[in-house]
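Figure S4 source data
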Amino acid sequence: MLENKKNARIAGILYFLQIPLGVFGIIYIPKILLVDGNIKMTILNILSNEFMFSLSIYCSILCSIITFITSIYISKLLKFVNENIAKLIVIFTMIMIPISLLNELNYITILFILKSNDITSVFSVFQIESIITLLLNLHQFGLHIIGIFFGLWLLPMGYLILKSNFIPKFIGCLLLLTCFGYLLDFTTSLLFPNIGFLLSEYTWLGEVLMVFWLLMYGFKKNKL
């Protein structure tokens, strides 16, 4: 029981940290800096807010690493149900990390291009804008690929919660729904790119409830 509470406490704290890092680094900063359909304004925003753009990269990388560490402690918490399936929680996030790090190279390359006098002196403004547009599009689609594994690590987690007897089963159901949201977003972004609808924006409740349950269980003094 004490070991479970310790694992839940650490997992809850780490899982909670993913929320501000993900929202700030992956959603908020790009939303205010990147102007859809206006690459000139986007470039101007990046140059005028270089620190914020770099902070977005930093937060995204840190969020991926913390997600992996979180998966280790959640796996420890749920391995009593099925140890092999619990290992999948770690494996999916382990696969996600290198993809996430490589994806942030798109943003880093944009900074290098805009700050390099050698590059800006060789290529025309139109060529630079075209390259940066390509890198931004690659980064955006890279997020959808990362979303596959952000979804898949919830699949064994949700299943094990449904099979457990101490975590509310409705949280497991909601986590499976969140998993489905991420996977559907990747499918629509690849096959139907003009839809412009992200289901994962409406299926995140399961993860939030999981965070609060882990924190409540981990810090609760009396037994549940």
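Figure S5 source data
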Amino acid sequence: MSGKHTTILGIESSCDDTSVAVLCGSKIVSNCVATQKIHQKYGGVVPELASRAHQESIIPVISEALEIAGLDIHDIDAIACTRGPGLMGSLVVGLSFAKALALAIKKPLIDVHHMKAHVLAHFIEDETNQTPSFPFLCLTVSGGHTQIVEVKASDNMEVIGSTIDDAAGEAFDKAAKMIGIDYPGGPELDKLAEEGNPDKFAFAKPNIKNLDFSFSGLKTSILYKIRDLSKNNPDFIKMNKVDLCASIRKSIVDILMAKIIKASLEKNIKRIAIAGGVSANKELRRRLKALESEGYKVHIPKFEYCTDNAAMVAMAGKFDFDNGKFASQEIAADPRLKW
């Protein structure tokens, strides 16, 4: 098979979600995810537990994805799998299985860069979304990454700004923990923020001159503010929870928006996309959508393609398949895979 009829099996296991998707042409026909709940009681992902859970989940999730797609494993044209970046143990489980499966069914293997896959998720054919035209800027924001990527082509991307310390997703989760929200706290903070006053509390903003980000100072500012205001009022957090959530969210989104607009002006590109788990944030989506009144073209993925998922891996694999770019059985997982 070739062209629009190409069928790619995508496997994603870079962190704590085991995901498998089937892409036919540019359409996703199944996208299954096994989410690991075990990490909640530890307040973060435990790498050893994550890799064990991937081992338990990968075969059932592949079976489920194929069943939903109505396909047999031999109907697949190629297997695309995340090679990195991510947690070493988690990556090894997915990639090792993909390599063995590719050998067993005699189909080509495609290794995928996790962050590039987030960007290319925008090219999944969808009735609600128009795919971006090149060049465009993509703000990739997750628990481990915060980057601005200049996307000139599917195989020509350049990181023009990145965080010098913590990622935006980590800032959300850590701030949520400070006000008593269980891990992963970012989504719950976003939900509570809808009810609060975003201008109730102000926090220190970083002053980074180029297109890079910094969130460590903001986290410290939030910590000190909560500590100081709680001294005279032990119920301060409880009484101000939704306003704290709204103010924290506004501060983080302000930083992200300032940088993506700066990048747009510097590069003279008014096409902007977002990707990664934090792209599910309601306030970030609203603020970006508002740019359309200023002549911007904004691309926002469906919620299911924001967090780690195999649909984006399969889509990235499709681009490589069409370009005849395949991986050898000698490749190894790389937790710090470069762009």
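The chain has two domains: 3-125+306-322, 136-300. The two ends are 30 Å apart (CA to CA).
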